[in-house]
Structures are given as structure tokens and as C-alpha cells.
Design brief:
274 residues; two-stranded antiparallel ribbon; 47% helix
Length: 274
């Protein structure tokens, strides 16, 4: 169903879902452009479908179908009900919960698990059945026992991820996109104990930038600036993590207004703001 919706609204030139600007009626503000699935072409502009239109279509479809509940009353659905139905059907048919989380746009997987009308053991059983069906369709040679050189190469990948400043987080079997310039790489997980060494690299980059400017080697300045910005970002990230871990946050003491101290029958004393 999702593939059919994407195929219907994707752009003819780019092949991707066009970005549209939606309005958040709860926050009363316009959201940044996003690839909204429920959108339509109005004139030359693409606009998202309004919640009122979707509710009306659902109501008309239920009335035309004539479906009733056990008590004989017409069924009532909201657009949000279909998110729960989708999560339940997807997970019960083998979709991993973390993939359903990404599709639904949840920040926390516990929210996704709360959307589905199944228990965790049912989700695990459904996922295992899905994996069994997929393996039955794939060639059996893909599931052979790895050879000793292959296993050693796999283990060696994780051993070679250890670098001077921490650990490299790139996936197994992928090459380094920064040609081992780890200071620029977003996948470098800096060890907090190596902050001093990172500060030395930052100071060295500053001295190097001054040197190349004195010699007029301006072609190297831009590259050094990229490395310097990356080093500063990593130092700021380490400092932020350290500040979050150290000590408790002082929320202050609540103040009692003077109106709570007046005698009965007397008007409260106004409090002047500073």
C-alpha cells in the first residue's frame, strides 16, 4: 500500500516524493517542507490533504459500505485509527518493530509498541516466521558456514576500528569515505579520555593555518578550516556530554507571592516585578 501511494505521488523528473508545507493546527504554525504521503496537486502547487477531508472520505466510505458493529450501529473511524491498524498488521506480518517505528515517525520505540494491538511475544513470533519465509525463498548457499579467512576478516574489521581518538563506527565491509582523515568523519566516536589529545590537534590546526597563510599557501587553508571546524564540533560535543553527566540540575526554589501572607478580609498586596 505504501509503495502504491509513493508511486502515485512521486515526481516525474526526480522520482522522489515532492516536499510540501503542512500546517500544524495544534501548534498553529507551518511545518518545514516534508515528503508528505497524503498530498494532491492544486493548480501548479502541491498541498497536503487536510484532516477534515480525510475524515469526510472515511465517513462517506463507511456509510457506503454499510458496515456496522456487533450492536448494529455504524462504525466510526478516525484517521489516527489507521495508524494503529497499520502498526498492528505490519508487525504481525513480520515487520521489525524498529522499522515500523521509522515508518510511523516515532522517536521512541515504546510508542510504536503501544500503537499495536499485539503483545511482545506475538511480535517476536511473527518476526521469526517472517525471517523463516524469507530464508525459504533465498538460495541456500547464502546461509553457508563462513570459512576461517572470512571469519578472521570479520573479526579484524572491529579490531581495525580502534583509532587514536576513539572508535570508528563505519559498517562492516564499507570503506573509509574520508581517506582515514578521522577528525572530519561523523562516524568517529571520540573517547572522552582523549579530549586532551583532541585539543592538541585543534591547537596544531590553528598553528598550521597561520603558517600556510604566512607562506601564501592559500590552497591548503580551506581544507585545514574543515578539519578545524570538525575538531571544534567534537570538543563541544564532549563538553556537552560531560556537563549533562556531572551533578544535578538546579531548578531553583519556588517563590511565594505576597498575596499568600495577607490577613483575611484584607486585599492582597500587589507584587512588583523586577
Amino acid at each position: 500500500m505504501l509503495a502504491a501511494i509513493v508511486a502515485r505521488i512521486r515526481g516525474t523528473s526526480s522520482g522522489t516524493v515532492p516536499d510540501v508545507i503542512a500546517y500544524d493546527r495544534y501548534e498553529c504554525c507551518f511545518l518545514p517542507p516534508m515528503p508528505v504521503l497524503f498530498q494532491h496537486l492544486e493548480g501548479i502547487d502541491r498541498r497536503p490533504l487536510s484532516p477534515a477531508s480525510i475524515r469526510r472520505w472515511i465517513r462517506d466510505a463507511l456509510a457506503a459500505a454499510g458496515i456496522t458493529d456487533a450492536a448494529g450501529k455504524p462504525l466510526v473511524f478516525t484517521p489516527h485509527d489507521f495508524r494503529r491498524i497499520f502498526a498492528t498488521e505490519a508487525i504481525m506480518n513480520g515487520m521489525p518493530p524498529h522499522i515500523a517505528q521509522l515508518v510511523l515517525g516515532h522517536k521512541d520505540i515504546t510508542t510504536t509498541m503501544g500503537y499495536k494491538a499485539v503483545y511482545p511475544d506475538e511480535a517476536i513470533t511473527a518476526h521469526r516466521a517472517f525471517i523463516a519465509r524469507r530464508r525459504a525463498l533465498r538460495p541456500p548457499e547464502e546461509y553457508r558456514t563462513p570459512t576461517e579467512p572470512e571469519w578472521q576478516e570479520f573479526l579484524g574489521h572491529f579490531q581495525r576500528r580502534k583509532v587514536e581518538l576513539g572508535d570508528c563506527g563505519r559498517a562492516y565491509g564499507t570503506a573509509c569515505h574520508h581517506e582515514h582523515a578521522c577528525i572530519r568523519c561523523a562516524l568517529l566516536r571520540v573517547d572522552p579520555a582523549r579530549r586532551g589529545r583532541l585539543a592538541e590537534i585543534r591547537d596544531s590546526l590553528l598553528a598550521r593555518i597561520g603558517e600556510v597563510r604566512e607562506h601564501g599557501w592559500l590552497g591548503e587553508v580551506e581544507g585545514l578550516k574543515v578539519s578545524l571546524a570538525a575538531a571544534n564540533d567534537k570538543i563541544a560535543h564532549l563538553d556537552l556530554l560531560q556537563s549533562r553527566r556531572s551533578g544535578a540540575t538546579d531548578l531553583g526554589m519556588p517563590g511565594f507571592p505576597a498575596s499568600t501572607t495577607h490577613s483575611p478580609g484584607q486585599p492582597p498586596v500587589p507584587v512588583r516585578q523586577p
